[in-house]
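job 3f2a | input accepted
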Amino acid sequence: MKLLTIVLLYVFSLTVSGQDYFLSKKKLLKDYREYISILKDKHAGVYRYNTKHEFKNFTDSLRHEITDSISVYEFYKIISLVNAKLGCGHSKVDSPKDWIENDVLPPFSLYSSQGKYFVWHDLSIQGLNLENKEILSINGILINSIIEEIKSYIPADGYIDTGKKQNTEKLFPLYFAKYYSRNTENILSYKDDDESDCSVILQSQNINSLIERSKTLYPVNNSIISTSNELNYYYLKINSFFMDTVEFKNRIDSIFNIIVKESPKNLIIDLRENSGGKIVNEYYLLSYLIKNKIETLIKREYKINKKKFQEDTNVLGIIFPKNVYFFKNIYFIMDGLTYSAAGEFLSIAKHYQLGTFIGEETGAANDGCNAGKKSYTLKYSRFVFNVPDYKYTFEGTSSAKGRGIFPDYPVTYTKKDMISNTDVALNIINQLINGQISAK
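job 3f2a | predicted structure (440 res):
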């Protein structure tokens, strides 16, 4: 009870930094109505996963929460709830940069296993060795409750939760400050190695400090494309399809020239954390994986006005093979951060049964997405938001509306896997190749 009292006293004395300023109710309502009006008129997917009635009821209910007593930060969260309601991962509302450039980001990221949350990267300056410690609460609020609230503000395609989960955990400092609270200090309650309950006051940091500490403590390979030639397979990791098209094609050509010479029976294409990119790049990679020409089965429409769409006929609808196909098996690895063009790539691959899928449900909806980069700025709050004006519809979907591409072999990670840095997906593929798991 003594610890609880200390926690409560501490929470009430927290210092919040950043521009926690106020505008009149009148100005906030004008911004809110302008935002809703632009969504209805310009957003290609505003009613993709909502009926007009549902969307109106939702936005009307939030409008009543706008009063003279709410700060612009709280108003940002209201706008973000509407943005998340769209079911469009390409929709975004930017918060002012100084909200995260100040010392308001908690210095740790998370991972979860079996309903519990653990410290993934410890970026604190106090040298507390918090890695893999189970988090119980922050400022007296249960971590599960905090995570669920943050997820409600994060945009995602359709009804998919995997991307929200991955983003909330891996980018916890950013999303905690954007959508939950911007504190200069936070009290963290956790279980120590001997299962005893502990607590510590953590100093928040600014985003530049966290980025630099992360680069130092947890260096990563930032290559867009990486490869390795193993005993049983050739491994191809594509982190993005955003690369310059000429450069991407040259790189893929050189890789497959090597693959043709080596003639491996098994090819692994890893698209985990691939957030998408250029359509022409995804199609080019597909051309190396098919035996015959295929139709992409994707309808692309441009929103002209509130009621009308016009089909875009300028996008290539057929992919021709490179005529080098010789693989016995192709394995695709994916996760909740596999998104946009990477998800579109997998939708096509899944429909044409090009291989076996390992991982978790993609963050990209199997039935397609919205895209486009038209930006608008609200007059008083100065929030900048983008409105996708293209609607892509995949006509060969294998999933329910608003769900991602599902794996043939789902992957989950235990705490032990995370500590040992075990790649469970690759382990499953090795077992499939060696006949230790029966193919589905």
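job 3f2a | The radius of gyration is 23 Å.
job 3f2a | closed
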